[in-house]
């Protein structure tokens, strides 16, 4: 049976990349350092996960501290970029469990593998380098927050990926991520599947609030979700 899904768009940190929340730990440290706050990692994850990082800072400040201050947010963001670069230089980064195996399986099935992320391109490419993942070999395309005008939950990154890969029907695209905003991004793009995974920022209960098509706990579970979607689509048509 031919797969109805022709492209899977994966989030990076927490979904395909295991970096032990370095990004959000660094974000928390930058916010607390510049602002003199005492935010927890849980608050940072709840309000900032999956977002472009300057927007994440603004959202965290507003939702956790009832504070709107663009100048402060920019100062925090600049410190965050410096600290994150240093962290990535010394910390070990791993692929999430079964990511490499899934990429190979999807390639064998003729399904395109795209990474998209709230990181800027420089940060995202540095991650790929540490993982020894190459565009055109391990994955088919990388789309980052700095490649588009509007970031998650807007659909711009997925739409750009579709345009680059020649896909015109969003029902043939699956989006998977570890935060509610990933699910919302897929829904706003009209993806056939918008899937949450519990390996990163948000719990199954938190992910469920975004009404995903499925919540999974292992990347390889995507294969059965795609298979069932293809069967049901064939039955309907």
TrEMBL record:
Transmembrane segments: none
GO MF annotations in UniProt: hydrolase activity
Top-level taxon of the source organism: Bacteria
InterPro entries, per the entry: HAD-like_hydrolase_sf, HAD-like_sf, HAD_sf, PGP-like_dom2
UniProt keyword terms in alphabetical order: Hydrolase
Pfam families: Hydrolase
Keyword match Hydrolase: yes
Name recorded for this polypeptide: HAD family hydrolase
Organism expressing this protein natively: Sphingobacterium anhuiense
Origin organism lineage: Bacteria, Pseudomonadati, Bacteroidota, Sphingobacteriia, Sphingobacteriales
């Amino acid at each position: 049976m031919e797969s109805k899904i022709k492209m899977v768009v994966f989030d990076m940190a927490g979904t395909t990349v295991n970096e032990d929340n370095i990004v959000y730990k660094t974000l928390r440290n930058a916010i607390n350092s510049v602002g003199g706050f005492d935010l927890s990692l849980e608050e940072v994850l709840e309000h900032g996960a999956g977002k472009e990082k300057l927007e994440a800072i603004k959202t965290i400040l507003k939702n956790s501290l009832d504070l709107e201050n663009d100048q402060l947010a920019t100062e925090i963001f600049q410190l965050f970029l410096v600290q994150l670069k240093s962290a990535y230089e010394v910390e070990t980064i791993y692929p999430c469990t079964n990511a490499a195996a899934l990429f190979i399986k999807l390639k064998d099935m003729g399904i395109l593998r795209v990474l998209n992320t709230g990181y800027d391109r420089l940060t995202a490419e540095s991650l790929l380098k540490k993982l020894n993942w190459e565009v055109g070999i391990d994955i088919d395309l990388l789309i980052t927050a700095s490649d588009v005008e509007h970031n998650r939950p807007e659909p711009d990154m997925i739409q750009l990926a579709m345009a680059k890969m020649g896909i015109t029907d969003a029902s043939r695209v699956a989006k998977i991520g570890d935060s509610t905003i990933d699910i919302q991004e897929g829904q706003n793009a009209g993806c056939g599947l918008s899937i949450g995974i519990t390996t990163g920022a948000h719990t199954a209960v938190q992910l469920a609030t975004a009404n995903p098509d499925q919540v999974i706990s292992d990347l390889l579970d995507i294969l059965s979700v795609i298979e069932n979607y293809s069967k049901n689509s064939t039955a309907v048509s």
